[in-house]
Amino acid sequence: MTNVARDHGDEPNSAGSRQEPRPDGKGATIPTPMTDLDGLKRPGIGTRARLEESSEQSVERLNKMHNAVRTILECVGEDPTRPGLLDTPKRYAKALMFFTKGYGENIGDIVNNAIFHEEHSEMVVVKDIEIFSMCEHHMVPFIGKMHIGYIPYHSVIGLSKLARIAEMFSRRLQIQERLTKEVANALMEVLHPQGVAVVMESSHLCMVMRGVGKSTAVTITSCVVGCFETNEKTRGEFLSLVGVNK
């Protein structure tokens, strides 16, 4: 069975830590790594602090966000004291915490032992999973759907867990390419199937509302692991089932 592909930059160096990019431009830039077993992608020390904070610290965090949003409103030329904007900093802070609630979730809690022994060796596909995420470059949404398929190896996972794993990773600041990989690699880690395939199609509002302004553009990303990577027929069957290669 094929192991999950890893970025070489995710491996520790001889000193036990990952090499960081240097400001002088020397050395390769390290891609943001995949997921760790706790379900939080690295680097993300601040996300762990968010998980462990007290109720007082949570209030302090929201107040800090309120002040930041108020400052943004002032900087764009608005009056944060006018009636329509008076509660906007509070509302936006709460909304942003919800949009990024995936930082407070982990794989173990999501799966919750919903893995069952089953001698089923044919493809399992859940398609058209709605995805709402936030682009980490502009902090505006990208919206689309994800298709997940796997071929079991003695075990199957509850179907709803596929959608919940996708939801967990999407409710973070993301790029579509990494989100696709994280879902595939997480499923390989928890289920150890013969292979996993993930395809995502989405519209990025950073392309619609700014820049090139292309409202009809759809971005498609894929990640294939295990037998989906090594067997063209298996990969083609999945793409046909989800309607990508029509």
From TrEMBL:
PROSITE patterns: GTP_CYCLOHYDROL_1_1 (PS00859), GTP_CYCLOHYDROL_1_2 (PS00860). Pathway: Cofactor biosynthesis; 7,8-dihydroneopterin triphosphate biosynthesis; 7,8-dihydroneopterin triphosphate from GTP: step 1/1. Residues 66-242 form the GTP cyclohydrolase I domain. GO terms for biological process: folic acid biosynthetic process; tetrahydrobiopterin biosynthetic process; tetrahydrofolate biosynthetic process. GO terms for cellular component: cytoplasm. The keyword Cytoplasm does not apply. Keywords: Allosteric enzyme, Folate biosynthesis, GTP-binding, Hydrolase, Nucleotide-binding. One of its GO terms (molecular function) is GTP cyclohydrolase I activity. Residues 1-11 have a biased composition (Basic and acidic residues). Signal peptide: none annotated. Its EC number is 3.5.4.16. It holds the Pfam family GTP_cyclohydroI. Residues 1-43 are annotated as: Disordered. GTP cyclohydrolase 1 is the first enzyme in the biosynthetic pathway leading to folic acid. Belongs to the GTP cyclohydrolase I family. NCBIfam families: folE, PRK09347.1-2, PRK09347.1-3. This is GTP cyclohydrolase 1.
